[in-house]
Amino acid sequence: MLETFQLLALYVLSVATFCLIAGRFPLLAPEAQHRVSSLDGLRGILATAVMVHHFAITFVWHNTGTWQGTESRVINNMGAVPVSLFFMITGYLFTQKMIKGQPRWGSLLSSRLRRIFPMYTASVLLVAGISFYQTREDLSPLVENLQALGSWLIFLGGPINGFADSKLINASVHWTLMYEALFYLSLPVIFCLIRRQLPIVALIVSIGVIACLWPEYHHEFHKRFVKLFLVGMAVAFLEPRLRKSSINFSNIWCSVIAGAVLIASLKLRTYSTGQMLILGIPFGLFVLGNSLHGLLEHKGLKVLGEASFSIYLMHGIVIYTAFSLLHLYDFSAGTFAGYAWYLPLIIMAVSALSVLTYWTIERPFIISAKLRPLKPAEQI
């Protein structure tokens, strides 16, 4: 318990320090500077919380040889709760689009590809480079390596150049992108159900692509995660009615409720139905404008929110490089309490690197092809 408190305290201190520093520099995109959105800052917290989760698991892995959860349910849920809320954000935002009317399917597909693949491809190349370095004395056949890279490009991953731990280099975060991809591909079907219209070409393409991917995906697919997208979708449907109510969702009592439910969710069983359902409460409040009494509107957190996808993809690579390649910590003689003091270094390094990759890799593709820049809340 004491070690959990230590890790949480270091996490809060590190994020607060980075936010105070980042808030002093012009790191926000122009369209984000004057917009009020709780989802922007929320995404920054979620991405950095996942970092803490994998930081702790790395200690377990180096001591037991097995990539598994810690003995702390709170630390384990610092991975599960953010992933749950990320899925809800996806379900909410794109259901909202479907409710408003038929999207331009080609533009929607293009925006998703440009949003995800440039940064994801860069992260996969880093994973491949480290895998080749770790197995530099034994080169696998070219065909096998191309197949392995192909598996990574459809978000499944696997050994590259025969390196069994390739998935652990990025903390295996790519598994969530498989669910995101399936949800995006299902949007024409969702639109058909919501609007009772038949976008024939979009339906044929989406169903065809899902059919091609399903033989590879069905072994990894767990239907329980669908519930999280459904919660986000439910919030999108309920939002108009709730906004017409007389409740001030930004008041202090709603902030207390949102914070209390988030804290309570950290003590529940990971990805349990109960946890998924109660997380819909704070998520709904954030959508309706609650910002935890202004916390989620902090400029520094919004910077982290913009860079959240880079943080999500890069943190595992930085942690692996620090402790498996550079061996910054002696796990054979050290304790978790001693290891925890490296967390601020990791958070600061990953956050700074991710802001850089957001501006140099992600954003150029987001605003490319003369399409309008996506709002940060849409940058999932």
From TrEMBL:
Protein name in UniProt: Peptidoglycan/LPS O-acetylase OafA/YrhL, contains acyltransferase and SGNH-hydrolase domains
GO molecular function: acyltransferase activity, transferring groups other than amino-acyl groups; hydrolase activity
UniProt source species: Pseudomonas abietaniphila
PANTHER family: ACETYLTRANSFERASE, ACYL_TRANSF_3 DOMAIN-CONTAINING PROTEIN
GO biological-process terms attached to the record: polysaccharide biosynthetic process
Domain Acyltransferase positions: 37-359
InterPro entries: Acyl_transf_3_dom (IPR002656), Acyltransferase_3 (IPR050879)
Keyword list, A-Z: Acyltransferase, Hydrolase, Membrane, Transferase, Transmembrane, Transmembrane helix
UniProt keyword annotation of Transmembrane present: yes
Record carries keyword Oxidoreductase: no
Signal sequence region: none
GO cellular component: a single term: membrane
Transmembrane region(s): 6-29, 41-62, 74-95, 116-134, 146-164, 176-194, 200-217, 249-268, 274-296, 308-329, 341-361
